[in-house]
Backbone:
């Protein structure tokens, strides 16, 4: 189960306020079915059903559980082609595109444009845009992730460092990582490290975007790879500097445990405040990603919901709106008023918690969704840059090789 999928389950499970408004006598309840996945999801969705029906007594939410998330998309596609798809189901932006192309879903613009009680201005544009395909709103975001830099205040203070500020740069990040790395014995590994670095494409995207680089020339209609562009190579060279040249990255790379154990100063990762509250026993906070040559350009990874050929489309839209404004744990709500309210995060956070790291990061973020049937293979190919970042192969040669693979994928129908 992916991080976005797990976070959706947390989001639905942490509903804070239940209205006790009874159904209107004689009112016919409109049925809306919703499909979800996850071995442990049924109980959480039962709570969601009870809460929603309390607040929307004219709607009966029918739950359709597909335990194995790995087969969820295939099951929905088969059901949809047989005319048996549910009214709503969970979907990330990439699968939302698949469902739309297969003719199984409804363009949500018809509701967005005519609902007098709904405003797009209340939602993060980048999260909405991730579900947009050539003017079609293929789905709706309920939550998302962008990257921030978690940092250990104690280690910063011991190193005589000022906490990261909103205008810090790649060079600031590098210098801080170097000063946070402690080598008491030159012949032995460090006893303390500057940072961790998850070693897969989705976690490299903010560095790539902040360098002015990209994987492809256009996310909606990609025609060629830009992985071997000077801007993209510049991002990978910076990461290689951290890993292979300065050797300030913990050898477990992206694992969170070294940060939680207090032996790593900075942790570039998502808005996982619940995990920090549970595992970190030291003072901490979070900063925006540092500015690269193209600025601080984050990468947004949303999760949300799509509407099929719903039996009661207006009622299904009400369910989407209801789900889209719920508070969430270990993720960021797509609903801006909620992010700016005391109701989020739902987990304990430091008194000086820097929620602006997430808000500002999301405002200028780019989606990391490629509209192509081979998108998963494209991202998988880019994972091959790991060897170059680790200093095992030449960065430019590796980027050119992978760019050729991506171009081959893009030529396929």
Residues:
């Amino acid at each position: 189960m992916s991080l976005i999928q797990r976070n959706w389950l947390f989001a639905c499970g942490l509903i804070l306020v239940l209205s006790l408004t009874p159904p209107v006598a004689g009112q016919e309840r409109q049925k809306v079915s919703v499909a979800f996945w996850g071995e442990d999801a049924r109980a959480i969705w039962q709570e969601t059903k009870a809460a929603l029906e309390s607040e929307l007594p004219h709607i009966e939410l029918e739950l359709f559980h597909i335990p194995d998330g790995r087969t969820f998309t295939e099951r929905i596609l088969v059901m949809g082609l047989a005319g048996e798809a549910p009214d709503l189901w969970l979907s990330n932006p990439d699968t939302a595109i698949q469902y739309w192309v297969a003719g199984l879903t409804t363009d949500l613009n018809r509701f967005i444009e005519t609902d007098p009680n709904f405003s797009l201005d209340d939602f993060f544009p980048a999260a909405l845009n991730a579900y947009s395909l050539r003017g079609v709103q293929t789905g709706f975001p309920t939550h998302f992730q962008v990257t921030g830099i978690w940092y250990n205040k104690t280690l910063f203070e011991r190193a005589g460092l000022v906490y990261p500020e909103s205008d810090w740069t790649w060079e600031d990040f590098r210098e801080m990582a170097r000063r946070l790395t402690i080598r008491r014995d030159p012949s032995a590994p460090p006893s303390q490290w500057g940072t961790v670095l998850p070693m897969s494409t989705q976690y490299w995207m903010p560095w790539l975007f902040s360098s002015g680089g990209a994987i492809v020339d256009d996310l909606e209609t990609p025609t060629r790879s830009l992985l071997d562009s000077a801007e993209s190579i510049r991002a990978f060279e910076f990461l290689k500097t951290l890993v292979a040249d300065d050797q300030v990255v913990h050898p477990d790379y992206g694992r969170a445990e070294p940060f939680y154990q207090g032996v790593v100063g900075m942790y570039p990762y998502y808005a996982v405040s619940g995990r920090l509250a549970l595992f970190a026993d030291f003072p901490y906070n979070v900063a925006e990603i540092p500015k690269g040559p193209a600025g601080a350009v984050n990468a947004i990874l949303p999760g949300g919901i799509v509407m099929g050929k719903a039996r009661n489309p207006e009622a299904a839209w009400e369910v989407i709106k209801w789900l889209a404004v719920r508070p969430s744990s270990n993720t960021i709500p797509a609903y801006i008023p909620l992010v700016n309210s005391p109701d989020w995060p739902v987990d304990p956070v430091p008194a000086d918690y820097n929620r602006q790291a997430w808000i500002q990061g999301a405002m200028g973020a780019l989606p990391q969704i490629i509209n192509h049937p081979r998108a998963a293979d494209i991202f998988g190919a880019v994972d091959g840059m790991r060897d170059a970042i680790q200093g095992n192969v030449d960065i430019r040669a590796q980027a050119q090789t992978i760019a050729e693979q991506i171009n081959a994928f893009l030529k396929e129908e």
